[in-house]
């Protein structure tokens, strides 16, 4: 089988495939055997009908059509692989030359037009710079973190005043629709201003003292009457305010292994810096992709884009928004494919297994059942693609300059090694 590739557009090629007489003969043999199992001819057992009798009954042309329909996709896939064509969608196949019954010892020719990834010429990666936030911790960030720690050790103290935002109330709720009570709860604790229960509840509680009652109208958020309008009566039983501990040496000894508040602050600053440092890796990855996409101008296959837009329409009523997101995602995917090809990224069986296990764990699914579902739904290439893309981005990151907002260089090698569960430095794949 031989083939030739003709570029029709930057994102479309025509593959002309010549199928040899030997390959066509094999397909015809399979076709005759399949048809013999399905037809009944007096004097012949089912499955034992000779080819000449089948030709007499249904005609050679019908057998040939059967053989082509059942084998042309296989021929196309083989030809595309040998010609190094990477399809992005289904092909449009047209058989341009085929034998008749008198030429059954000849081959056939077909063309396949298919959308492909455009040629993407990557820039010299060593010339690129990606900027990430600094890991320096400022006073506001440190104060906020210390305040969060203090909240964990805060206590509640009863107060004899109206409730305000940030206070905790114990309350009773009763909902009625018309003259009928449809729901009620008693002694429920709630932080005023949290806005996590009924719409209008926070406004009703603000300014209400212990023992006082008010009524407001709202839409019920759950239960048998979810979505219905109701009158809700709220009665406050008690009001408590959060009493924050004093951030002194006594607090440091209670909340940590340190003896002084300064030691605790220093340790907190180190943890915040480490957290921000780990965040630099994800920021650098995304920054690199955005930098490359901004610098590269390449077309998007219209047919593939149309299918992607239909997918995103399910999430966006605005077709223009769906088009924008689909275009961005498609461009990113094609760029990462080009990077993977550039670095000749290979995905090992162990990497695939680990990725599947992590996904199963995230979905709290049985690993074996999860893998079966992935295979049944044809999603395995997506997992392989994700692994390949991630490895390609990380290889690229080792070649670009990464710096923080102050212009200081950032070395991500150790973080990359940790992320790949490798104690050694990541090696360059030249």
Fold and architecture overview:
The protein has 430 residues and is an alpha+beta fold. Helix content is 45%, strand content 20%. The protein has helices at 21-38, 51-58, 60-82, 139-152, 201-205, 249-255, 261-295, 302-313, 319-342, 349-362, 367-376, 380-397, 413-419, and strands spanning 2-9, 12-19, 92-97, 108-115, 129-132, 155-158, 168-177, 180-191, 213-219, 229-243, 401-404. The strands form three sheets. Strands 6, 7, 8, 9 and 10 form a five-stranded antiparallel beta sheet that branches. A four-stranded antiparallel beta sheet has the order 1-2-4-3. Strands 5-11 form a two-stranded parallel ribbon. A hairpin with a 2-residue loop joins strand 1 (2-9) and strand 2. Mean pLDDT is 91; it is low at 422-426.
Q: Keywords for this structure?
A:
four-stranded antiparallel sheet, elongated, 430 residues, single chain
Task: Characterize this entry briefly.
This protein is an alpha+beta fold and 430 residues long. It has helices at residues 21-38, 51-58, 60-82, 139-152, 201-205, 249-255, 261-295, 302-313, 319-342, 349-362, 367-376, 380-397, 413-419, and strands at residues 2-9, 12-19, 92-97, 108-115, 129-132, 155-158, 168-177, 180-191, 213-219, 229-243, 401-404.
